[in-house]
Amino acid sequence: MKTKLDIAKNWLPRYTGTKLDEFGDYILLTNFNNYVTKFAEKFNCEIKGISKPMQSATNSSGLSIINFGIGSPNAATIMDLLSAKKPKGVLFLGKCGGLKDSTEIGHFILPIAAIRGEGTGNDYLPPEVPALPSFKLHKFVSNKIVQHNLEYRTGVVYTTNRRLWEWDSKFKEYLKRLGAIGIDMETATLFIVGYANQIARGALLLVSDLPMIPEGVKTEELDKVVTNKFTDLHLQIGIEAMSEIGIKGEQIKHFTF
Q1: Residue 94: which of 14, 157, 169 has the closest Cα?
Q2: How far is CA 132 from the centre of its chain?
Q3: How many CB atoms lie within 10 A of CB 7?
Q4: Which letter does DSSP use for residue 109 in this model?
Q5: Is the pLDDT score of 153 beyond 50?
Q6: 3-state class (DSSP) for residue 82
Q7: Most CB atoms within 10 A, among 56, 128, 143, 218?
Q8: Helix (H, G, I), strand (E, B), or coil: what is residue 223?
Q9: Separation between Cα atoms, residue 114 and residue 130, nearest integer Å
Q10: Three-state DSSP string of 178-244
């Protein structure tokens, strides 16, 4: 256990209850256990790690899904641990708050970048390094969204460690000045730690609330509505995009630095 790789190879199975060779080459990440349950039901595969911090399932085609929990530290942890597997592509299926009038509940956002407001990524790379997705992976995702005759938004999302901020008027004014389209707690971390570990990564975010207005703040009732109405579609687009990349066998990473 002298190197980072040694530790990651030991810890990924420990956190997930899944052996390294049982993971697929393509990974879906989520914060929600019901995504893993729906995935397992769709492909009739076993959910592993039920008693572990992270649950996962893998279908026969080599696509895995992992529920890594909520928040920036957990996002950094899973991207570090996945360096043991060296996946060919990772797509985050997350939820975010819409910050602009043009975003509505149920919209999909493909972030072109994420603002590193969470601080976790600073342990990996200096603040001036941008948190970016892998363009080609997002190209596959955008094609699938269009095939479903759906619109999607692009823009910059803000990632924060603060879960309870909706009451803070000064923070809201700050967000307005930034011009970000959405806010979440994981995307920037996933992008920057993925970059640090040379893992191709992307994010398909579902707008689940409109926290800039009091009546748009997420409640238990609103969360149930969003889950029932949009979760299946969100998951399906992610499955289709990552499965197509696997079938075509195209490399997402073009360059080696």
Answers
A1: 157
A2: 13
A3: 15
A4: E
A5: yes
A6: helix
A7: 56
A8: helix
A9: 8
A10: HCCCEEECCHHHHHHHHHHCCCCEEEEEEEEECCCCHHHCCCHHHHHHHHHHHHHHHHHHHHHHHHH
User: Residue 20 and residue 31: Cα distance in Å, rounded?
Assistant: 21
Q: Is the predicted pLDDT of residue 191 greater than 70, yes or no?
A: yes
Q: Where are the domains of the chain?
A: 4-248
What length is written for the chain?
Answer: 257
Q: Is the dihedral angle over the CA atoms 23, 82, 74, 188 positive or is it negative?
A: negative
* Amino acid identity, position 255: F
Q: Cα separation of 19 and 251, whole Å?
A: 25
First-residue to last-residue Cα distance in the chain: 27
Burial of 20 (0-12, 13-18, 19+ CB in 10 A): middle
Give the model confidence (pLDDT) of 194-247 as tens digits.
999 999 999 999 999 999 998 889 989 988 999 999 999 999 999 999 998 876
Tens of pLDDT, residues 80-108:
999 999 999 999 999 999 999 888 999 99
SS3 of residue 30 by DSSP: strand
CA atoms of 79 and 186, how far apart (whole Å):
11
CA dist., res. 79 & res. 19, Å (int): 16
